[in-house]
Amino acid sequence: MLIICMIYAMQADAMDVNEGRLRILGETAKSHQVAGLITTIRSDLRVLAETKEVQYDKLLLDAPCSGIGVLSKRADLRWNCKLEDMEELKNLQDDTCSIDSEENQGRAEAFLLRHPEFLVDPVDRLVPSRFVTPQSVFLSNPVKHSLDEPFAARLVRAL
Ligand SMILES: C[S@@+](CC[C@H](N)C(=O)[O-])C[C@H]1O[C@@H](n2cnc3c(N)ncnc32)[C@H](O)[C@@H]1O
């Protein structure tokens, strides 16, 4: 739901600068009876990346993008996070609501160039083959498939 969901054992830390989004997450978690598993943290991810006081094994990044994959609903034009801030991680899932390859494959490829210790974890065992690109990441067509999250890449630290 939020920009990142950091998972440690059965616990998840959800971080966002937007208090309203965190409140909605808290309410949703409560209604699904998993509130005890999620800690919401109001913070700027860039600050966390600089202090590096916390380390996680897995991270789901739903970073701000142009949102052009869901233009019928909204357009979030900020792009505040840098994938390279996540270099301490073992697993990273990068999702966007965009159909712009520069914001999708372009970001993942640039990260992999800077971090050769990471590899793409192929998504073909997780989603139908029509959503799997030759680079083994998830890509859907919002018009054709009526899905709001057009892109996802799973990156795993190999070394
Ligand atoms: C694409 S939206 C994620 C929306 C979320 N998946 C949801 O369904 O509510 C990106 C989120 O990143 C948050 N955000 C933007 N810059 C941030 C930053 N520097 N640190 C933490 N959160 C940030 C925004 O407040 C926004 O909620």
TrEMBL record:
This is SAM-dependent MTase RsmB/NOP-type domain-containing protein. GO terms for biological process: RNA methylation. Keywords: Methyltransferase, RNA-binding, S-adenosyl-L-methionine, Transferase. Residues 1-159 form the SAM-dependent MTase RsmB/NOP-type domain. It comes from the Eukaryota. S-adenosyl-L-methionine binds at residues 16, 44, 62. Transmembrane segments: none annotated. The keyword Protease does not apply. InterPro entries: MeTrfase_RsmB-F_NOP2_cat (IPR049560), MeTrfase_RsmB-F_NOP2_dom (IPR001678), RCMT (IPR023267), SAM-dependent_MTases_sf (IPR029063). One of its GO terms (molecular function) is RNA methyltransferase activity. Belongs to the class I-like SAM-binding methyltransferase superfamily. RsmB/NOP family.
